[in-house]
Amino acid sequence: MADIIDSASEIEELQRNTAIKMRRLNHQAISATHCCECGDPIDKRRRLAVQGCRTYASC
After folding, report:
1. pLDDT by residue (tens digit) across 7-22?
2. Where are the alpha helices (DSSP H) in the chain?
Protein backbone atom coordinates (compact mmCIF):
# COMPACT_ATOMS: atom_id res chain seq x y z
CA MET A 1 0.00 0.00 0.00
CA ALA A 2 2.85 2.38 0.83
CA ASP A 3 4.32 1.90 -2.66
CA ILE A 4 1.07 3.04 -4.26
CA ILE A 5 0.93 6.12 -2.05
CA ASP A 6 4.59 6.91 -2.75
CA SER A 7 4.02 6.58 -6.49
CA ALA A 8 0.93 8.78 -6.34
CA SER A 9 2.86 11.40 -4.37
CA GLU A 10 5.69 11.39 -6.93
CA ILE A 11 3.24 11.79 -9.81
CA GLU A 12 1.44 14.63 -8.02
CA GLU A 13 4.73 16.40 -7.33
CA LEU A 14 5.83 16.04 -10.95
CA GLN A 15 2.51 17.43 -12.20
CA ARG A 16 2.68 20.34 -9.74
CA ASN A 17 6.26 21.20 -10.72
CA THR A 18 5.37 21.04 -14.40
CA ALA A 19 2.40 23.36 -13.85
CA ILE A 20 4.61 25.83 -11.98
CA LYS A 21 7.19 25.83 -14.78
CA MET A 22 4.49 26.40 -17.40
CA ARG A 23 3.12 29.38 -15.44
CA ARG A 24 6.58 30.90 -15.20
CA LEU A 25 7.13 30.81 -18.95
CA ASN A 26 6.90 34.21 -20.56
CA HIS A 27 4.39 33.52 -23.31
CA GLN A 28 4.80 37.05 -24.65
CA ALA A 29 8.55 36.66 -25.11
CA ILE A 30 10.10 37.41 -28.46
CA SER A 31 11.75 34.42 -30.10
CA ALA A 32 15.27 34.59 -31.42
CA THR A 33 15.64 34.45 -35.20
CA HIS A 34 18.87 32.45 -34.98
CA CYS A 35 19.86 29.64 -32.61
CA CYS A 36 21.98 30.71 -29.64
CA GLU A 37 23.78 27.34 -29.77
CA CYS A 38 24.60 26.73 -33.44
CA GLY A 39 23.70 30.00 -35.18
CA ASP A 40 21.31 28.40 -37.68
CA PRO A 41 18.08 30.27 -38.44
CA ILE A 42 15.10 29.18 -36.35
CA ASP A 43 12.11 28.15 -38.45
CA LYS A 44 9.17 30.56 -38.29
CA ARG A 45 6.80 27.72 -37.31
CA ARG A 46 8.95 26.94 -34.27
CA ARG A 47 9.14 30.61 -33.28
CA LEU A 48 5.34 30.81 -33.40
CA ALA A 49 4.76 27.50 -31.61
CA VAL A 50 7.35 28.07 -28.86
CA GLN A 51 7.28 31.78 -28.13
CA GLY A 52 10.50 32.95 -26.57
CA CYS A 53 12.56 30.09 -28.02
CA ARG A 54 16.31 30.69 -28.16
CA THR A 55 17.52 27.48 -29.80
CA TYR A 56 16.92 25.48 -32.94
CA ALA A 57 14.72 22.42 -32.37
CA SER A 58 17.60 19.91 -32.58
CA CYS A 59 19.89 21.86 -30.24
Report:
1. 999 999 999 998 888 7
2. 2-24, 44-49
